[in-house]
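Entry 14. Structure prediction run on the chain below.
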Amino acid sequence: MTSTEPLSDGELDELDELARAATPGPWFVRGLDDEHAMNLVAVSTTPDTGLGERWPNFDHREIVAATLVQQPRYVDAADEHWDENAQFIATAREAVPRLVAEIRRLRSQLEAGAQSESRETS
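Output returned:
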């Protein structure tokens, strides 16, 4: 989605479907650490404790995405924006459905206003 064109109703439906199909939110950024995933930056269904838990002291089923896994180097953004990417992913979980709903609400208001204006000029 790099187009500058307005989102179509079909595209809004697709975004809505993607959000509904994803693991329920909210999502949180977590910093985890162990010899297998050194300095793991993850997106999780549970908040970060600040303890940098080591496996098996965290439930792997809570992790929905990772933006940094250093040992071995499985996940690593070239620009080193691991924390920022994780925050974006976690925030998008709640923001995308809200943005879709807001676009639909505003379009509905515009349509109602246009219909009202059309009746007034008839």
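The first strand starts at residue 28 and ends at 32.
Filed with the rest of this week's runs.
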